[in-house]
Amino acid sequence: MKARIRWERWGPLTLILMLGVALRVWCWVGPDMAWLSDESRFATVVKNMTNGYLPDGPTEWFGTRAVLLAPAALFMRLFGASDVSVSIWPFIGSMGAVLMAYLLGRDLANRGVGLMAAGLVAAAPIEVRLSGFLRPDAIMPAFVALSVWCALRAARSESHATRWAVGGGLALGAGWSVRESALIMAPVVIAAAWPVLRRVIVPGIIGAVSVPLTTALVWVLLGGSAMAPISSAGGELAYRNPIAAWNWSESYTSQLLHGALRPNDLLFFAGPVVVATLSVHWFREERRAILPMIWLAWAFFYLEFGTLLNVTKPYRYLTLCVIPAAILVALALDGLDVRVAVVAATVLSVWVLSSLPIRRYRSDDVVLLSRVSAQLAKLPAGPIATESYTWWTKLHIYRATSRLTVPKAEDPAFSTPARIRQLRQMTPLPLVTDARYLVTGPVHPRGGWPKNWSQYRETVPSTEGLELVADLGRAQIWRLPVTNAVAP
To answer: What pLDDT score was predicted for residue 238?
Structure first.
């Protein structure tokens, strides 16, 4: 009897979490590592941290994102440098979003709404896709949701409101240390705690500021600058007039409309579902939907207009809207069998994600590459040459034993056409003559490769006459006749 009660209480949520894990593992293709992408630069900083080097200098401004990078560095230290270790932290963040959707839906309405909201987040294509990328997009929304949930609990608690407020502040501070824009969501947290705001605002602020202050203290103890975890993110930012910068073709509204009927788009059917859901709540005058509606409206307004100050509009930022949107949909469908909604969302997600062409590269650019990297770990360290830029940049990072240089990145939105063409070039290209090993294997060119990578490929020598160090089937490691190569 007790086992049955436990299953009825936790079984459905466990199945939804298992569904989320299964979808994310099935869709996982490893980090993209495109030229000058944030992901490749984050991975470089994480590897430096693993090797004992804190972020430093004008291009390594990621001290403000300690909660993004420090856990990733911990996992890399525990499990070794690989696609898997780089992806663990965003995977946990994405699954945390599933759990938070359940808790918020349950506390705003009932357990059925919580389960449905969790199932929708577990199957959301944009969440599943981004769960394997070392970016803030899969992590920060979970911390924002945790902060909102703690604020909601504080508003409903008679004796523990202060503790919940401190917890909400800590969560928001942690979200800020993943991506600074988490602080923009503070009005939603305030709205959740509104009935007891005067009583909990000070403990909440104390909790929020304690995270960057603690990070600053740790930075100092490790020999870094106290201000780096607080203010160093401003070093690379540029700003522009948001009114002059806005245009329809790049807007999120346009992206939602264009992706609505394209089955190979991560936003497929998202726009119509959200619009229909908002219409239902409008006519019902559903009071339970007020908080998630405020949350969704504020997040979307910020993304549509606030981000124009200093960034372009990648689709991945929309993960900030997934949890409130899922809760609103679940509230609109309250009373429907949860299994029907979750199965429908899963079928739709698999349909969308199965159309992504990049999945066919996993066997080579993830599985085979991991075998190559493991084999290189057994050999004396040295620079590596390979025709595939994806392989080169991953091996360059994962097998590094000294400090790596983090290249400066510029947002194309703030550059002239001539400068954009220049940014797409890798300058300088690595020299094959400096390499100790040549890795041969499958080559799958991607859009994120440097435009001049073909020039490097032309300098890669033939394997004739080279010493074969390891034969891994579809990949081989050769020793180049270079006696003065240095470790990366």
So the answer is: 55
- Strands 437-440 and 384-386, sheet pairing: parallel
CA atoms of 478 and 468, how far apart (whole Å): 5
Tokens of residue 390, six digits: 């994806």
Phi, psi at residue 194, to the nearest 5°?
A: -55, -45
Alpha-carbon span 429 to 196, nearest angstrom? 59
Tell how many helices (H) and how many strands (E) occur in the chain.
Answer: 22, 4
Asked if 63 contacts 219 with a C-beta cutoff of 8 angstroms, the reply is: yes
Place of tokens 């945790």: 146
Enter the pTM of the model.
0.92
- For 148-190, what is each residue's pLDDT tens digit? 999 999 999 888 999 999 999 999 999 999 988 899 999 999 9
Q: What is the rounded CA–CA span in Å between residue 442 and residue 302?
A: 43
The residue whose two tokens read 């899963």 is 346
Q: Beta strand 476-479 with 467-471: parallel, antiparallel or unpaired?
A: antiparallel
CA distance 482 to 110: 67
Residue 75 in tokens: 């996992």
> CA 80, CA 373: separation in Å to the nearest integer?
10
Q: CA 254, 260, 265 angle in degrees (round to 5)? A: 95
Q: For the chain, which residues score pLDDT lower than 50?
A: 234-235, 484-488
